[in-house]
Design a protein that fits this description.
The chain is an alpha+beta fold. It folds into three domains: about 110 residues, no CATH class; about 240 residues, no CATH class; about 170 residues, 2-Layer Sandwich (Ribosomal Protein S5, domain 2), CATH 3.30.230.30. Helices cover about 45% and strands about 10% of the residues. It has 22 helices and 14 strands. Strands 4, 5, 6, 7, 8, 9, 10 and 11 form an eight-stranded antiparallel sheet that branches. A three-stranded antiparallel sheet has the order 13-1-14. Strands 2-3-12 form a three-stranded antiparallel sheet. β7 and β8 form a beta hairpin. The longest helix is centred in the last third of the chain and has 27 residues. It starts with a helix and ends in a 6-residue tail after the last helix. Belongs to the IMPACT family. This is Impact N-terminal domain-containing protein. It comes from Podospora appendiculata.
Amino acid sequence: MATQQDLQELLRLLTVSRKIPMMQAMAQIKALQAVELRSIRQIAESPLQTVELAIKDEKAARSLQSACKAVLKRGDQLGGVAGSKRATDASGAGPSPKRIARQQQDANEFMRGGPVEMTPQELESSLELPISADEARIAETVLQTNRAPLVLAFAVELLRHTMPEQPLSSRLSLGQAVVSANSRSKAVSLGLEKGASADDEGWGAGQPRVRVMGREVAVLKRGGYDWRGEETVGDEQDGKTHVRTQTQAQTQTQTQTQTQTQTQTQTKTPTQRPPATSSDLAQKGTWAVSQHVSLKSSTFVARAISITDASQRKVLIESLLDANPNLKTATHNAWAYRLRPPEGFLKGRGREEAFDDGESGCGDLMLKVMREVDAVDTLVVLTRWFGGVFLGPDRWRIMSNCVNSALSERLRKTGIDTSLSGEAVWGLDLEGTRTSSSSAARGGGYGGGVKNQHQSTGVVGMQIHRPETARNYLLKSFLSAPEEQAGADTSPSTPTKKTQKPTQKALDLEKEENLGLLLGALRLVFDSWADHLTVAELDRRAWAWYVAVRPAVDSGPSGWGAKGTLRLRDILDLRRKE
């Protein structure tokens, strides 16, 4: 594996001597690493054919290898004292300190798995957060921190339950968006900032929105971002279950959706639609069925069918159970339906109703999914055979995926577009977009490299809250409180200096362990409530829980960014009492 120094030397060779743009240089390094060429010396001493295999261009490969050989011949390591001096003597001026610092920062980001092209699995793996479920250690831990990173930690863990279809990268991005919006609101209330926010000025107009901890966040869909779940996915066909990976199932659903949407576009919509009767629909047997999803002995499946009147619901469900006797053995058969608004009320809200059948929060979840995709004149039945093991946040994710799958299958069968399927999203950095609207977006970020445009001309170049930034913020924000604060009531006072200053490495390790304990405490809290609250109620309570345990600081401008103590025992006390 390449060392930090090897990477920096090679990166400096490509960007300074060969004047290759940073992102192109990083892409070349990744290609070279794929053929086990990880340093200047390895490139210089390897066969030319190996370099060509990575660079894909004979002339460029030969030129790169010649440059590496020249470096070794001169004994110039491109960044050493002698090398810097020769570069300065030859050109009159060497790289500026700022440029060298930026290159080192980019190299460090590259080593951490930063904004270089990676597979979704590689990205999610690089963002993993520490977590500890040791209740004894959690209960005795007292941290010193300010409020913003605690909001981020709350949001990231909350989203495991309220938006379980989102990968960790999206949860970090959304959490940082909440922190940004909350911090600006607080700054305005303290008189530290003035004027309308970017959101108020319309920079997020036209973008989808989600609610996190009671705050609406503008998001950007990450089209084509595939990340795999852990559950087994299968179809019932001829009495057998044919197991497929979730990625294969999603790919087929997306292909079917695109094909059917094209067909629908070419089909002329009739001006009048005769109302369908319950018996007609029952006889047609037009139920669209999702994949059967199993996890820890629990199995889920959803079905969707057209409905034009609330009175049809009972007959349709009875006919479904009669046609599929195995459904009567299920633990839960929850249902939900939505009807379009009456004629003349184009912007009104149609009738909707749901029933959990003992699966707490299931009805509200189904209605939420149907609202998000604007599914109307649709009845959905979600069936679960309980396996005896509580699934925590996975339950919400699987139920949401099943409902989306049933709606997509209904589209394939009928051509009626009721589902767009859940997509991963980024939290939009509207303030950053406004600030840099007149200049080119900074390279190296997700969505960077193109000019920003106002929302009226599209979302090209809109900045996002990067998950790496959010993760690093969490990792550096939670120190152990000094003993005098840990043993006293919560106080924002400045701690006394320790007699023996720990090394930076020891501090980083301490902060990482503390973050794991904090996230473990939050997970225990949310897991205890997840099966007893709806998604909306869990989101609403999360902010109240944060307020109850956040560090105490001065209420005025002097408290802006100030640190206080956080007792993890107080977080554990938020758990549901059995």
